[in-house]
Design goal:
The chain is mostly helical. 53% of the residues lie in helices and 3% in strands.
Amino acid sequence: MTGTSQGNAHPEPASTLPHNTILDRSPSTRHAPISDDEWAQAVQQATENVARIETLNRTSNQRGNSWSLPIPDGTYSRTPTWTSRTHWQHQVRTLLNSPTGTTLCTNHTISTEAVFAVAVIHASLAESATGRSVTASRETIARRAGVSTPTVKRARRVLTALGVAVELVRGRYLNRLEAMAAESHHGHRQFRAASTWALTTPRPVATTVAPPFTKARKPSRATLRTAAYRSRTTTRNHPQSGTRDPLSPSGGFALKALAFKISPTRAQTRAGKTTHQPTNTPRPIHLQRAAAELIAHAPALTPASHIGMICHTLQQSGIDTTRWTGRDIAHQLTTDTQQRGWTWPNHIPQPTAFLRWRLTHIDWAATTPTERNDEHNRTRRAEQLTRHAELRARDERNASEATRTEILRTFRNICTPVADRRVHDSSHPSNRP
């Protein structure tokens, strides 16, 4: 039906199929030349559209892999920012646990845990300094929070009622210029834009809700060593006092450049010698990787000390870690345990000694599980290639010249009318008496 979409009784304002005006032209107007004025007008319109798109993307401060709707002027000035991400989450949790928050959650048929989960995802997507520019869709927030899309809608109503979230722009379909700006921003087509939200901390909330208690961090040992070193070396490096001229001879001033020039450390460096010689040879990377994989697949063997004890045990057992990976070693230990009818103990007081004892009862010169798997894959691949070669040879034998001639003759008889077929059959040499 004309003006309808696939039999729909409601006509569309325009056809959904692309309209090619070049093919619809008559032969007389198909190759009609374009005047200079039309060409200049088209170029001017395209230039203006490009300028408008660049201005729109620049003024709307686009970021990320999606294009967000521009914020009207003056909206941010009326919307307060949050104090910080941690404080805002603490404020939301405090408001949700209050009688007002509990009543709002009950009225909107949602739990406080679901609202707080949605709030945390909003906080992770907002700008750190202001709490604005939350442009993710409801489906994305629901997937990250582990809830449904209607739950996100109800949670946003609760956050809006508490005054800690404001919807700046409602999501909608993009117009033609906005779709072109979106494609210019991220390189692919976009037809809709999600709502833009801002997370706020109103003045009453900031004054009534106390900030979370943060315990002072204990300085690390590296910080303490650095402070002690600086306290010891400050007087030695800067012997002059604050009241005396630093260039005065009586201040005991020594040029650091001269001290560095005659220092034995600098002399050794100039001679090509290293001041710190390694005390031991580093372990091979394949040995370290095997030890790490072994602990990952057999957590009961995790040593109480450094993982180097497992590397030392594997090296003493004579295992070739270039062939045996940590996964293969764990698999071999499990197989040997099953063959002996044993079970893994629930608790191993000395994992390193237990591993050394178990490794001495296994033959590590055999083929590894990885090598057996690779051999099986090679055999299966060879069988597949042989099977494919047999199928190709069979197809070549079936597609002989006689077979092709017979197939063409049958196809010609099917396509030829009955009268012509009789004449053709009567004229065929094989059908003559």
